[in-house]
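Me: I'm a chemist; would you kindly supply a protein sequence with its structure tokens?

Assistant:
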Amino acid sequence: MIAGAGLLYVNQDGASKGSDAVSATSSPLAVHAKGPLARLLTPEPVPAPDYVFLNAEGEQARFADFKGKVTVVNLWATWCAPCKLEMPTLAALAKRYEGRDDFAVAVISMDTDRAQDEARAFIAEHPPLAYYSDPKFQLAFEFPGKGAMPQTALLDREGRVVAVMIGEADWNGPEAIALIEDVLAK
């Protein structure tokens, strides 16, 4: 699985390997699909997958645990170079909104068990991000990107997926902040 998993990264032009093209209807959030977020998908809101992943203590977590918060969910892996490149921007985003009780950033490692120590150490270098994992590498296939990495979903306060970005992005840049502020304002 690991050897094949390395093919699920997203090319610079936005085409993903190992994933079918994703079609999505447009919502009012589509105005944010420009510049570095040009590949942003804005589907009709759907509930986030009811899928169990693990927190840093190895306890079960679900997206329902984030209900009431606008949540940026980033699916990443240590073998994915674009995933690692965008992690500092996710850490800066988390720091920007630190202390707010209506916002969260959840970075979830798709690394298998044998790479968990490396993934945990990598997240420790990017405070204030918390470590979450899916060592079964299944969660990435539950979102529209169908396994593409990196993949970032924006959940509204009701726990619905309202936007998805397949590929690397600057999550602390003005375009991403405008998108997040738009969802926070609702």
